[in-house]
Amino acid sequence: MRHEATVISGTEMAKQIQKEIQQGVESWIALGNRRPHLSIILVGDNPASHTYVRNKIKAASAVGICSELILKPENVSQEELLDITDQLNMDPRVSGILVQLPLPDHVDERTICNGIAPEKDVDGFHIINIGRLCLDQRSLIPATASAVWEIIKRAGIETFGRNVVVAGRSKNVGMPIAMLLHTDGEHERPGGECPAGRPLM
């Protein structure tokens, strides 16, 4: 039996999600909690990476999340980056840490991602978060995979018991999407629940 394809526009959906998150952040703060704070580490002069980071800072600001950019030169050592993540891990002001990828060839991305405390790993790239995702346990989920699942859910598309094709098998996008579809998205997100029902880290 042939089914007609459904084209999903995420523009209006994104506006609604942004509004919900903004309300959730303000409700969270009204309860006496600290405003969420995102620390972003950016290495080198890659134009695409700088564009991505600008967009992330803009998106964070739009929903009331504080952010800071830590910019390091292309020749930064792996040890210095690990020192930075260690400091951010211990900083109570910092709610989440993001290292913009890719990193220079002399820096091992997996080592740096694993240097972030799992509970502050907003990209969900730490080996513990990846393992928990695969085992259907409490975890932080990579943003693209989480966004894809949110779109599917809000669009009312039923995936349970269906055959689904995921184009791509990257460890940061394709694999997490496949795992969410495999478990029908029933993953427990860490963090407090704000009154609007949006999880905050």
UniProtKB/TrEMBL annotation:
InterPro entries: Aminoacid_DH-like_N_sf, NAD(P)-bd_dom_sf, THF_DH/CycHdrlase, THF_DH/CycHdrlase_cat_dom, THF_DH/CycHdrlase_NAD-bd_dom. It comes from the Eukaryota. GO terms for cellular component: mitochondrion. Keywords: Hydrolase, Multifunctional enzyme, One-carbon metabolism, Oxidoreductase. One of its GO terms (biological process) is tetrahydrofolate interconversion. It catalyses: (6R)-5,10-methenyltetrahydrofolate + H2O = (6R)-10-formyltetrahydrofolate + H(+). The keyword Oxidoreductase applies. Pfam families: THF_DHG_CYH, THF_DHG_CYH_C. Residues 8-123 form the Tetrahydrofolate dehydrogenase/cyclohydrolase catalytic domain. Its EC number is 3.5.4.9. Transmembrane segments: none annotated. Belongs to the tetrahydrofolate dehydrogenase/cyclohydrolase family. This is methenyltetrahydrofolate cyclohydrolase. It comes from Myodes glareolus (Bank vole). The lineage of its organism: Eukaryota, Metazoa, Chordata, Craniata, Vertebrata.
